[in-house]
Design a protein that fits this description.
The protein is α/β, with parallel strands linked by helices. It has 22 helices and 26 strands. The chain is globular and about 70 Å long.
């Protein structure tokens, strides 16, 4: 039964009503996660009991409607249970990225006035303990695991709630309205202090409805979730899964096992950022390229056949008999192996947060795996535009979801309006007035709408580089192309008020062994490779190939390879792996300055 049919029957509105409805009516599995090396599963009825028990505990702590409750944790089942418990008592969830420093945690908790914080473990609790004196509103710390002195364990929270009648949870949940605040999500702050986006239950419900008008999610779907639940896209995926009665399969919290784990879980739906798909693409193509000869020719022939079949399907044509026969061979020998990297059951993958090479998307489509780009912001409750299997155009982020208006301002900025657009920034009227004008959200992103209504992202207003000759350049265009190479992790282009562009490049640590072997470097450490002439020549080759696609003024004239990767720990990346450009510029100012020195 489809999601639309289910919702027509029960029509749950708020996130609180939705989860209680799902717990009462759904009979399938809700959660899958690994514990002590074995996969554990939880049905919807048990999920409902866990959420209700935590909600009763929050009531026992005196949490009132509108109170802010923070969650500081990696993505795990307890995060989801705590989130829904908060929503069911009419309170407001404040997500905090697990990678945040103690001072960043302090900022979010202090600014939001959180009364309670859920912490994942001792590591996260230590952050709060270090800034507790600066958080006068904070009354309780609850630990998912490893509860320390002064904190409640989940079991202790549930015990406190035993004195509260379950009926009070239902009363609170059903008293929540669409206009009530559901969550304050702090932006990751690439250009300044984080701003708390206020999203109501109505904003979230509207965005879910808009997405569901474009994409149907069956009840037997399995969503693989590994992105931070502090990010609004993962939250909306969580809500969509529960609304559909689907299963959420959680990662083991080990980034090195992502590709392996996708194959093991065999998800049907995979929301991600480009980096995971780039890794899978590399896994699918590198060994073939290294083998060369007949094997490589067979591989490229098979992908070419797959492309012709998909093009015929998209045009509404039936592939001819000869092409069907070729496809049967191509699929048996090559293409099914690509699908197996996703577990063999993948129906739809969505990528966002950063651009991805259309060549990668076309490769996966040829193998029968649809990886489709979408676009949105925290301020749009996640999704504002998305490609679908039926309607997609590579190189764009798809068409706006129904009900979300999109227009392009005279200066190229993307403006959006609709019921999914947030109501403003928490305790920040100045920023609200700046970004929300007459109901139109000023995104800060630059884009174009083509004749068929597909949206293309062309850059970021605040990232524009204006050279000394007055040329406006969006650095993301050339950065993204260079970053697509196997060897490169990050690229940061520099050149504001300078005569030409330069760049800071970092090597991908996961590919260090292969790069060392290719260039004949004696060591496999990133630091040593960054200094090796052979590695530098290989990166120069990549830069030259990409430069050839741009006008001279848009080309990178010089670059430097950093002896380490950019990291969240050094505050150079956001939790969603976006580069904090200004931080990188400041931290590596000497490197950039050296690239403009006369070396003659």
């Amino acid at each position: 039964m489809s999601t639309t049919e289910d919702r027509a029957t029960a029509a749950p509105t708020t996130m609180a009503a939705m989860v209680l409805d799902a717990a009462a009516r759904r009979r399938g599995m809700a959660v899958r996660h690994k514990e002590d090396g074995a996969w554990r599963r939880m049905g919807y009825a048990e999920l409902g009991r866990r959420i209700t028990a935590l909600a009763r505990g929050l009531l026992a702590l005196g949490v009132e409607p509108g109170d802010r409750v923070a969650i500081l944790s990696q993505t795990r089942p307890e995060w989801t249970c705590a989130d829904f418990a908060v929503l069911c008592v009419g309170a407001v969830t404040v997500p905090v990225y697990q990678t945040n420093s103690p001072q960043e945690c302090r900022y979010v908790l202090e600014h939001s006035g959180a009364r309670v914080v859920f912490c994942e473990d001792a590591v996260q609790m230590e952050k709060i303990e270090g800034v507790r004196d600066h958080l006068p509103a904070l009354e309780r710390v609850v630990a998912f695991t490893q509860a320390r002195e002064g904190a409640l364990s989940l079991a202790e929270l549930e015990t406190r709630g035993e004195e509260i009648d379950e009926a009070r949870v239902r009363e609170r949940a059903h008293a929540v309205s669409l206009d009530d605040l559901a969550t304050v999500v702090y932006t990751s702050g690439t250009t300044g202090p984080p701003k708390g986006c206020m999203l109501t239950h109505g904003n979230l419900r509207a965005d879910m409805d808009m997405i569901q008008q474009r994409i149907s999610f069956p009840g037997d779907a399995v969503f693989y979730v590994f992105l931070p639940l502090a990010h609004v896209l993962t939250r909306i995926v969580q809500f969509l899964a529960v609304d559909a009665g689907a299963e959420l399969a959680y990662w083991q919290r080990d980034p090195k096992k992502l590709v392996e784990e996708v194959g093991e879980i065999q998800p049907t739906h995979l929301p991600s950022v480009p980096r995971l798909f780039e890794k899978i693409y590399t896994a699918a193509t590198v060994k073939v390229a290294e083998a060369g000869g007949a094997r490589e020719k067979l591989f490229h022939w098979a992908v070419g056949v797959g492309r012709r079949v998909r093009e015929a399907e998209q045009a509404g044509r039936e592939p001819g008999r000869a092409l069907q026969a070729q496809y049967a061979v191509a699929d048996r020998l090559v293409l099914h192996k690509v699908r197996d990297l996703f577990g063999g059951r993948i129906e739809l993958s969505v990528t966002g947060a950063a651009p991805i090479d259309p060549e990668i998307l076309q490769f996966f489509r040829a193998a029968g795996v649809y990886v489709l780009e979408g676009y949105g912001m925290t301020e749009t409750a996640a999704v504002a535009a998305i490609n679908t299997i039926e309607e997609h155009r590579f190189g764009t982020v798809g068409k706006p979801v129904p009900g979300c208006e999109v227009r392009i301002a005279d200066d190229g900025e993307i403006l959006m309006k609709g019921p999914n657009i947030f109501g403003g920034y928490f305790a920040n009227e100045e920023a609200t007035r700046s970004d929300l004008v007459d109901g139109w959200l000023h995104s800060g992103d630059l884009g174009e709408l083509d004749a068929d209504g597909y949206l293309k992202i062309t850059g970021r207003k605040k990232d524009l580089i204006i050279t000394s000759s007055g040329k406006n350049i969006a650095p993301s265009n050339i950065e993204n192309l260079i970053r697509q190479t196997r060897w490169v992790s990050q690229v940061v282009v520099f050149g504001d008020r300078r005569p030409y562009l330069t760049a800071l490049v970092t090597l991908d640590p996961d590919e260090a062994v292969a790069l060392a072997a290719k260039v004949g470097a004696p060591g496999e450490q990133v630091g040593a490779l960054a200094r090796h002439e052979g590695a530098r020549a290989e990166i120069q080759r990549v830069v030259d190939e990409v430069n050839a696609q741009f006008a001279s003024i848009e080309q990178i004239k010089r670059f430097e390879i950093l002896e380490r990767d950019l990291s969240q720990e050094d505050e150079e990346l956001t939790p969603t792996l976006k580069v904090k450009r200004n931080v990188v510029y400041d931290r590596h100012a000497g490197v950039f300055a050296g690239l403009y020195e006369d070396r003659s």
